[in-house]
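Take a specimen:
=====
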Amino acid sequence: MQIVKCGDYFQADGGPRRFGNICIVTKWIKTTQTSLILRCLEVNYIESKEPPLCVLHIQYPDWPDHGVPKDTLAVREILKQTFSVPPSLGPIVVHCSAGIGRTGTYCAIHNTIQRILVGDKSALDLVNTITIFRSQRIGMVQTMEQYLFCYDAIIDELEDLISDSQ
């Protein structure tokens, strides 16, 4: 028996999905070279006269629960995708099955890179960043392997940014 860890709100099986007064339709799906699955979801509040919202949904199915990816490429591709979205379009929502391991790892990487790019030197203290995250949600970044992956991804992304600027 397989445990369902997350509802299929993004319609892996196709067709519109209704959740009360909300209807979600997948407009397109694209798989990247790093095995990310990108979807454009049209979210419509049925009782509203407002136009539907278009949501970019990024799924990383190759990131194992309680583990880390084999390399940092896909996580850094997610960074690039999310950094290209104007903040005025709304917040970024990150989730995994429990919302602490993979979610905490990605959020620590994203937050640290974002703060470094605006010159926040306190961002270099990853231990403090994760401690602050854990004060808001217990267990963020679950394993030592995930902790070390944060450092690997941050270093790889900073090296790429430096080489791109030269």
Remarks:
- The first strand starts at residue 17 and ends at 19.
- The beta strands are 17-19, 22-31, 37-45, 53-59.
- The mean pLDDT is 91.
- Residues 13-59 form one domain.
